[in-house]
């Protein structure tokens, strides 16, 4: 397990105004690690990720068997920050039956005909399951805040886009998450924090390697032009919506191995903190098990 002190540093304190410059994008920004060499940390991170995969798989089984809680993992990031890699590498040991990934793109006409939280609400995980939101309702205070003309399509009642519009959306999000938590969902939110230089490096890799061309999108390049606006929108959203019941973690994501290990660690620790137990078998069911065993033993082979 990663030390609590490290995790505390990357958890956004509720009510605190976030300045992303205070959170590093590199593993070396974590004070606990900077005395070690990069190769040493990388090696240790890989071992820990492997251990956590097993732990997560056990935690998932317990989550499924106890059938009371669910886990919602929210992934938000700038383009090329590694959301897909997190899903692939952190979740790889999970039983697909108890895990679902929901990816959110631009809302459809039907979705725009509802309130902005509707499409997300419909896709929250059932009890016993882990649901991953690859992008989420936070897009409605991120991309939409950076490009407010998108609201023109939302058919909001006249006058509803005035003062305090975004603050009210943050309030709605906090209330929505509180509702989920009160009904048994553990809500964990990760912002994969990469530097602008690292994004450039990853875009160039996609352009230079024919096997990665499919990953490149001209739209991502256009959004890079709004880097500062996105950073500001993230700072505002993280400041307003990191709550006691649904905290944000700012994950240094310039090195994939550190991001993956941190997230797997937080997931395992958080699910374990639910103190789940396998359901106990009632006396009646126990008697049925004994009887079934007796009948099977008596069967002629
Ligand atoms: P990939 O790794 O495949 O590129 P992605 O999550 O970037 O995954 P895309 O299809 O490239 O998927 O992009 C989805 C787009 O949909 C993003 O630009 C995102 O900002 C946009 N989007 C998501 N939710 C909303 C929303 N509520 N309103 C407007 N745009 C949204
Ligand atoms: Mg994309």
Quick structural gist:
It contains twelve helices and five strands. The protein is α/β, with parallel strands linked by helices and 301 residues long.
Write the topology of this structure.
Elements lengths: L3 H7 L27 H29 L3 E8 L5 H8 L8 E5 L5 H4 L5 H4 L8 E5 L8 H4 L18 H18 L2 E9 L2 H13 L9 H7 L2 H15 L6 E5 L3 H17 L10 H16 L3
Parallel strand pairs: 1-3, 1-4, 2-3, 4-5
Bound molecules: adenosine-5'-triphosphate and magnesium ion (MG).
Adenosine-5'-triphosphate binds next to helix 6.
Shape: globular
Radius of gyration: 22 Å
Q: How far apart lie the N and C ends?
A: 50 Å
Q: Largest sheet, described in full?
A: 5 strands, parallel
Q: Going across the major beta sheet, what is the strand order?
A: 2-3-1-4-5
Order of helices and strands: HHEHEHHEHHEHHHEHH
- The strand count comes to 5
Mean pLDDT, rounded to whole units?
Answer: 95
Structural class: alpha/beta
- Provide the low-confidence segments as ranges: none
Helix content: 40-55%
Mind explaining what this structure looks like?
The protein is α/β, with parallel strands linked by helices and 301 residues long. The chain has twelve helices and five strands. A five-stranded parallel sheet has the order 2-3-1-4-5, sandwiched between helices. Helix 2 (38-66) packs parallel to helix 11 (256-272) and helix 3 packs across helix 11. The mean pLDDT is 95. The structure holds adenosine-5'-triphosphate and magnesium ion (MG). Adenosine-5'-triphosphate is lined by residues 79, 84, 103-107, 134-135, 139-140, 143-144, 150, 217.
């Amino acid at each position: 397990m990663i030390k609590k002190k490290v995790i505390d540093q990357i958890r956004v304190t509720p009510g605190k105004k976030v300045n992303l410059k205070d959170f590093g994008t590199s593993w070396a920004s974590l004070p606990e690690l900077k005395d070690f060499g990069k190769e040493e940390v990388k090696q240790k991170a890989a071992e820990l990720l492997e251990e956590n995969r097993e732990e997560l798989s056990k935690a998932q089984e317990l989550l499924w068997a106890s059938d009371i809680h669910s886990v919602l993992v929210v992934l938000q990031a700038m383009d090329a920050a590694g959301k897909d890699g997190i899903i692939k590498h952190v979740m790889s040991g999970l039983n697909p039956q108890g895990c679902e990934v929901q990816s959110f793109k631009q809302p459809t006409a039907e979705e725009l005909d509802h309130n902005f939280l509707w499409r997300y609400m419909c896709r929250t995980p059932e009890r016993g399951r882990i649901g991953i939101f690859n992008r989420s309702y936070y897009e409605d205070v991120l991309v939409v805040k950076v490009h407010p003309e998108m609201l023109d399509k939302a058919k909001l009642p006249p006058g509803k886009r005035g003062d305090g519009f975004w603050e009210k959306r943050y309030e709605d999000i906090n209330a929505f998450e509180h509702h989920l938590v009160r009904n048994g969902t553990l809500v964990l939110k990760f912002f994969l924090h990469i530097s602008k230089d690292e994004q450039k490096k990853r875009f160039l890799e996609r352009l230079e390697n024919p096997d990665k061309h499919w990953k490149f999108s001209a739209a991502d390049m256009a959004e890079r032009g709004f880097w500062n606006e996105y950073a500001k929108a993230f700072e505002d959203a993280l400041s307003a919506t990191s709550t006691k019941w649904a905290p944000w973690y700012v994950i240094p994501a310039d090195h994939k191995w550190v991001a993956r290990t941190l997230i797997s660690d937080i997931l395992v620790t958080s699910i374990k903190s639910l103190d789940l137990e396998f359901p106990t078998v009632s006396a009646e069911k126990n008697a049925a098990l004994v009887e079934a065993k007796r009948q099977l033993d008596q069967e002629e082979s």
